[in-house]
Amino acid sequence: MIRPIAEPPATIRPMAHDDLPLVSDIERRSYEFPWSHGVFRDCLLAGYHCVVVDRDARVAGYGILSIAAGEAHILNLCVDPNFRAYGYGERMLDQILLHARSADVREIFLEVRPSNQTALALYRKKGFHLVANRPAYYQAQEGREDAAVLAKKLIVDDR
User: Fold this and answer.
1) DSSP for 7-55?
2) What confidence tens digit (pLDDT) does each residue in 16-47 have?
3) Would residue 6 count as lying in a domain?
4) CATH of residue 57
5) In what order do the strands lie in the sheet with 58-68?
6) pLDDT by residue (tens digit) across 100-111?
7) How many other C-beta atoms are found inside a 10 Å radius of the C-beta of residue 15?
8) What 3-state class would DSSP assign to 122?
9) What does DSSP assign to residue 83?
10) Is 45 a member of any domain?
11) Do the domain assignments include residue 103?
């Protein structure tokens, strides 16, 4: 499918409880081993920074960030398969990084499947680098898949 060069208008806004059915649907269509509806609900209830890409009153993607003790962890970042290649993932990542900086986060982490080359390219573009490998982290069709642990410094410690 050929995508238009211009990104359709969309806004990034806080995730609401009413978004959870659509978020869960995107998750199920995107991953073989998706998060449950309850995990998304718990992230909202825990006060994590949860955002959605809203395109024409329809959720086109979502991101979830936890922050604690000066560090942040991107727990999930996903774009609906029908809306990929419009730059929505990059826009959400930019918003998440901005939020983390405003919360005085020193360093931000995430795990990604090494097989997810599209995500790896985006994270490298945004300055993330490999810091570790978590063996057998992800469930896979046959056994388990490792996770690449990536990090990015947001505040440089001058001590």
Assistant:
1) PPP-EEEE--GGGHHHHHHHHHHH-SSPPPHHHHHHHHHTT-EEEEEEE
2) 999 999 999 999 999 888 999 999 999 999 99
3) no
4) 3.40.630.30
5) 11-14, 49-55, 58-68, 71-79, 107-112, 144-153, 129-139
6) 999 999 999 999
7) 22
8) helix
9) G
10) yes
11) yes
